[in-house]
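Need the bound structure for zinc ion, inputs here:
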Amino acid sequence: MIKSKTKEVHCCDKCGKDEDYISSCDNCGAEYCWDHRKDNLISYPHSMYCSGSGDGSYCKKCVEKLTAAKDPRLLAYIAILDLRTEAEEAGKAFKKRVDAAEARIARYAKSR
Ligand SMILES: [Zn+2]
Ligand SMILES: [Zn+2]
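Answer from helper R.:
Posting the output first, comments after.
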């Protein structure tokens, strides 16, 4: 039996390709395929130590617009992102001190 049916598919707003894995902007709903997602969407993790369900995703235009409008949801995501960056930088500074301390110990260990 042959049946013809109409099916709705999500397509990339940039190239028009329909793909199973399409990401969209949480604000305007613009959709992007895997290839165009990197250049057009910004992802915001929902937590300090993990990401996944609950993450935010905004196109660059909306980020600009919502930042100017001080959108509380986007600001909450940005707060997490800032904390992640801060933790990463603090971690790097700490690692430097650890390396320096270990280098000092290494000097004494050699002279034994
Ligand atoms: Zn595309
Ligand atoms: Zn958008």
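Comments: The longest helix spans residues 72-110. The beta strands are 23-24, 31-32, 41-44, 56-59.
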